[in-house]
Amino acid sequence: MKLLTLNTSSMIGFDPEKQLRILTQALSGGEYDVVALQEVNQLNNGDAIPLQELDSYVPCQDRVPVKKGNFAFQITEALKNSGQIWYWSWLPVHLGYGHYDEGIAIMTPHPIRKTDAFYLSATTDYQNFKTRMALGIQTVFTGNPEWFYSVQFGWWNDPEEPFSAQWDRFEDHTGKLEVPLYVMGDFSAPDDAPGEAYDYIFSHSNLTDTFKIAEVKDSNLTLTGAEEEWKDPKDRRAMRADLILTDSGEPVLNSEVLFQGKRYPRISDHLGLEVTFGEKTTTLKNDPGTRIPQFVSAISPPAPPAVITSSGPMVVRTRRIRLMNSSDPFQLLRESIREAERSRDILETIIFGDDES
Q: CA 183 to CA 162: how far, in whole Å?
């Protein structure tokens, strides 16, 4: 499974045509399962798009219609023109700069089962730029229901809308979920300020920062620090402010900044965070001593063969390694080797048993 989060700052200070072209290129070749976007804008006075023309759009609200020029709509249309259907939802959060409907979005090539939208801020005033909301979607592309949220929080020391209160509201709402949770977005805070937002998150939740457990990672500095709203000089620097958090327990293979000028040019003040998950090991109920990998993939595996053991049927699931549109052939080689080793271990367990049981 591969996830991406990006604060696009669309229409504000960046070339929207360049943004659209490069982002579409990245999404069409990146094999992403879920993409969370923040500051996804449209002109407040634009013409509404009829719902019948929004064939892959899944509404999460009805107060502000999707209008022509909506950046998420433009992305999905560009992807559709290249032969890819992406399902998406967009949530308007507040009026930005006096003439933008500023919102958050989630996109996925997999069907969306449910949406969830709620306030993070105490204020619900659409005219107030400090209003914050969260948008979630539920999918089952891994075989199990999971929730993915796109978020943009306020600042830690805001006297009216402090980060801690907004995080508490997020926890109160999502704490009722009994399925894996993925939180993706702009946390508006550096991860290295002791006792502030980052520390608060992990002292008040069971979530894990995917960067911390990634096998391979770069600096993950996702914000340049040149934004005018960062008043404090100590915050006007490069920082890790965009995060992908989860309580799924899945191993993380890679955590990498995407639009930093190496793989793709910079298209926003935020640089985009890509996280790739690996397999997780589960124990079969009918054979506590036998462990097999449960592979997570955007491509549905073929019908699994049944292998009969002394304790009952055991299903061995394999994953197809995707060879198209890869920018790293060495990663494909490494994955091929790992797949071969795992297949060997599975067969040895089936034939000879598990020495550790």
A: 19
Per-residue pLDDT, averaged over 85-94, amounts to: 98
Q: Is residue 357 part of a domain?
A: no
Helices 71-81 and 16-30, axial angle in degrees (round to 10): 50
Contacts 24+ apart (CB under 8 A), 261-265: 263/26, 263/327, 264/22, 264/25, 264/26, 265/18, 265/22
Residues 18-75 pLDDT 10s? 999 999 999 998 899 999 999 999 999 999 999 989 999 999 999 999 999 999 999 9
Which residues fall within 8 angstroms of residue 296, CB to CB, at 6 or more apart? 1, 142, 250, 277, 278, 279, 280
Locate 324 and state its tokens.
């198209």
Q: pLDDT tens across 153-177, in order? A: 999 999 999 999 999 999 999 998 9
Q: What residues make up the domain containing 263? A: 2-278
Both 199 and 312 in a single domain?
no
- CB-CB neighbours of 102 under 10 Å: 24
CATH number at residue 19: 3.60.10.10
Residues 153 and 55 in one domain: yes
Report yes or no on 190 lying in a domain. Answer: yes
Measured distance CA(129)–CA(193) in Å, rounded:
25
Same domain, yes or no, for 72 and 154?
Answer: yes
Q: How far apart are the first and last CA of the chain?
A: 30
Query: Do 93 and 215 share a structural domain?
Result: yes
Count of all residues that appear for the chain in the document = 357
Output DSSP code: residue 233: G
**Cα→Cα distances 330→33, 264, 297, Å:** 22, 19, 19
List C-alpha distances in Å: 262 to 257, 327, 347. 9, 12, 41
Q: Please state the pTM of the whole predicted model.
A: 0.77
